[in-house]
Amino acid sequence: xxxxxxxxxxxxxxxxADERISAARQxxxxxxxxxxxxxxxxxxxxxxxxxxxxxxxxxxxxPWEVVKEKIELKYHASN
Length: 79
Fold this sequence. Notes:
Blueprint (H helix, E strand, L loop, with lengths): L2 H11 L3 H14 L6 H19 L8 H14 L2
């Protein structure tokens, strides 16, 4: 990272959280303005498949707290 960029980052880090989030969001969305039509179609198909699986009770949702606990147990146990 060059000196000017580092100065900008240092200044941004001094902002309140909501303003840092806004700046990060703007930077993130400035990276790629091109929409990949194939990817959009694939995601739409995946969403429809998952909704069907939920509606037909083929799968069930797992609360985030349960998933988080399993992840923490797995990775803390291996350290």
